[in-house]
């Protein structure tokens, strides 16, 4: 019975890749409520959560040629919804900066939900955090300072440049260097897509 189920889903995936509307509806019905519930946890508005979820499926359809494996559908949907949720949360944060700590906590919980949705089980989220923290500590000093100000203190590049008395280009170059450093350190432990998901919020 299990084999027949997977065979049927594999067929739907192959049809989806060919642009079959019925196959798209199959995956829409399979994942839509999950994406809505996932989004609603963090933006607190069901109507907006539905909008976010609908946008995720539109993006999935227009990018279906980039989905290589059937598991990529779920990964793509959660990643897209996560991005839009964070954009909404960050927009609110601009209006109310004092909520930044709450935002960071929501982002952390959001990461945990995404990693769980992708069946990330090679290491725990806390272990991943420890690995990232250790990698940050090993960064060149200036890279580390700029990374911390950007990602932990939510400062803009211009603010960092003025505070550290360096050029805007120097800030951008060091952020690029810091991210490349982390990606290289983490690549041996987790898939690249999870590195991107994690580093967008860390």
Automatic annotation (TrEMBL):
It holds the Pfam family Sigma70_r2. GO terms for molecular function: DNA binding; sigma factor activity. Keywords: Membrane, Sigma factor, Transcription, Transcription regulation, Transmembrane, Transmembrane helix. One of its GO terms (biological process) is DNA-templated transcription initiation. Residues 28-93 form the RNA polymerase sigma-70 region domain. The chain crosses the membrane at residues 184-201. Residues 131-182 form the RNA polymerase sigma factor 70 region 4 type domain. It comes from the Bacteria. Coiled coil: none annotated. Belongs to the sigma-70 factor family. ECF subfamily. This is RNA polymerase sigma-70 factor.
